[in-house]
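=== RUN LOG ===
request id: a7f3
mode: sequence -> structure
chains: 1
length: 368
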Amino acid sequence: MIRAGSGPKIITEKVFRQLASRANCLLYIYDPTAKRFNYLSDYAPVLLGTIFSRIEQDPAVLWDSILAEDREYICSELKLLGKKECLTADFRLHLPDQPVKWIHTKAFRLEEDPLLQGCIAGFAEDITQRKETELFLANTHAQKDVALQILGHDIRAPIGTISAASSLLERSVGTEDLKNLEPLFRIISDTCRNALNLINEVLESVYWDAQHTVKKKSRVDLVELVESQLYAYRLLHQDQKEFKLCASADHIFVVSDQVRLQLILENLLSNAFKFTKRNGTIIVGIQEQRQAVLVTVKDDGIGIPEGLKSKIFQKFTAARREGLQGEKPTGLGLHIVKTMVEQLSGRIWFESREGEGTTFFVELPKKG
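=== RESULT ===
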């Protein structure tokens, strides 16, 4: 029931209904005492579909169509309606044989008309397309941030390797035969190539969901891959720490994404290096299993305090710490490692005792 207004220019019910029928939204008046709708505009069947006819008889049908996780939110907002001038809310509606819709509503209590006093009037519109666009843009922005964070974190390590190798090369020129310098040139060349591969891979996948980013799989010899990384560490840091490789065979193969394998190993080695004291030992183990390969990175460093263990794999975690030589943390390393291990259908965990060292375990399928 709609009462006609009064004044110099009277808006009749006919005019109001004409305006409501042209609006691309649902206008409504609901009586919470009688628990029924006094008015639903002509847009109701468009917005509500097959449940429209049932809602007129039983408004609870509409309430039941709101997603369960949004009902509590709507209920709390309705309780505040008397204290607010109006209610504004977005919620999801799951109608029969339709995808979930996002609905935006704005409502207020009618107080001036004695026949409608206490009723709730408002409008509701379908904002699904707008919400999907917002979520897409937010997801794209988040992926861009992650890509930049990965590049910022993981490009730092190879650049550091190149810088160390270049410094060693500079000191060696004029004092050694050029043949003895060949390993340093190879380290610089390999590190530059790996860094460029990483940049290309991340930039290619920046707008992809995480489950779609693993695209380039090949047969990789893990023993050879680890040995090449340890070779660089031994050459550049042989006077600081001891690096060992313990493998169950001379060659152990997996079918996986080589770029991510390199990043996982580099991050774990870099992490072990940062938290191991001078003259400490870092041991990489590779154990071939029936359907998987277990890679371990063990150090005898300072270990992880009990209070930080649950936060180790979190993004920008409070568990981030400076290295023993003052290396600045980003809080992204182990979060990224866990993400990449899961992208390779593997799993990662660790064991650590403060003051005695840490071991990270990475189990990878032979055919990822």
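=== NOTES ===
The first helix runs from residue 13 to 22.
Residues 1-8, 207-214, 326-331 have pLDDT under 50 and may be disordered.
=== END ===
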